[in-house]
Specification:
alpha/beta; Hypothetical Protein Yjia, Chain: A,domain 2; seven-stranded parallel beta sheet; 12 helices
Length: 345
């Protein structure tokens, strides 16, 4: 049984653009008197997710309780960033009742879970649960569930090939560490896609996991908070591709920040982002755009070729009206000059 004196932490992991921020926004809005704190780990130096959450701050989760870690993937900066951040939260008065940690889409959850076993942390905090988000449409398309038989046949034909893509390793590690899987965007996948995604998740899960369909981040807090999993004491049941390794890195991924002037046509910008994904294999684009003649800032979020834009708030008086986009891709696909040219049009 979980020690009630310890502060529970929920780790929310999932692939790029799976909907982690939407889930956290929903939990913040439905805290029901529980005082929350949120730690957001960004990839790239434009803090889109953290700023979105701060704009939704409420008395149960005030802005000062929302902290950002933007110095790299949280699983690689545990000692430098994560531990001091947790200590800062625990020193707050009043202390949070529950902490939510949103990892970057590239984070491997296992190293983060191991950090909770450190004596200074374990005595005060427990991992209430690990929630993995899976984009139903992407999983159904087979992007993170390769055909094992086909891979084996290719390996036999050419043993110099590495058939395990970095993206599938991240996905599989996230599923393996989870207590619950939230399947997002089920409407885009359709019934057959949802069934295929469920089968893929089951194939990668080391144990039977509940899989819950979620639209627009709306999940009942009673389902995902208060699990009492004590995951820091259950690490052996959460296997990772990197078990036994002293360290790991994310050299397979990279990001570049593209600065652009005001945009006259948001639809044309969205089309250029879509083309970037199709032609260069870009995984994720997120950031803000200034639109000529519009007082509101345009929020830009893209997962592959799926681009979503919406005006989120007015530009501040002291804020430069400019366009800044973080572009994330596998290392070999990052060409800053070509990416800037493609987005500039």
């Amino acid at each position: 049984m979980t020690d009630l004196a310890k502060t529970p932490v929920t780790v929310i992991t999932g692939f790029l653009g799976a909907g982690k921020t939407s889930v956290i926004r929903h939990l913040m809005a439905n805290a029901n008197g529980r005082r929350l704190a949120v730690v957001v780990n960004e990839f790239g130096d434009v803090g889109v997710d953290g700023e979105m959450l701060k704009s939704c701050a409420i008395p149960d989760c005030p802005e000062e309780n929302i902290l950002e870690l933007a110095n790299g993937c949280i699983c690689c900066t545990v000692a430098d960033d994560f531990i001091p951040t947790i200590e800062a939260l625990m020193a707050m008065n009043p202390r949070p009742d529950h902490i939510l940690i949103e990892t970057s889409g590239l984070a491997l959850p296992k190293p983060l879970l191991k950090a909770f076993d450190w004596p200074d942390i374990r005595s005060r905090i427990t991992i209430d649960g690990v929630i993995a988000l899976a984009d139903a449409e992407a999983v159904a398309a087979g992007r993170f569930a390769p055909d094992v038989a086909k891979v084996d046949a290719q390996r036999e034909a050419d043993d110099s090939l590495d058939h395990e893509t970095p993206l599938s390793e991240v996905f599989e590690d996230q599923i393996a560490c989870a207590d619950i899987v939230l399947m997002t965007k089920p409407d885009l996948a359709g019934p057959e896609g949802v069934a295929a995604a469920r089968a893929a998740i089951a194939a990668h899960a080391p144990r039977q996991l509940p899989v819950i369909e979620v639209a627009e981040g709306a999940v009942d807090p009673r389902v995902v908070l208060g699990l009492g999993a004590e995951a820091e004491s259950d690490l052996d049941a959460r296997p990772s591709h990197h078990d036994g390794a002293d360290d790991h890195d994310h050299e397979d991924f990279d990001s570049v920040v593209v600065a652009l002037p005001e945009q006259a046509d948001p639809a044309a910008l969205a089309a250029r982002i879509e083309a970037l994904a199709t032609e260069r294999g870009v995984l994720r684009v997120k950031g803000y755009a200034a639109v000529t003649g519009k007082p509101m800032r345009l929020l830009v979020q893209a997962v592959g070729a799926r681009v979503r834009t919406q005006f989120d708030r007015p530009w501040a008086a002291d804020e430069p009206r400019s366009t800044r986009l973080v572009v994330i891709a596998e290392h070999d696909a990052i060409d800053p000059v070509a990416i800037h040219a493609a987005l500039a049009g």
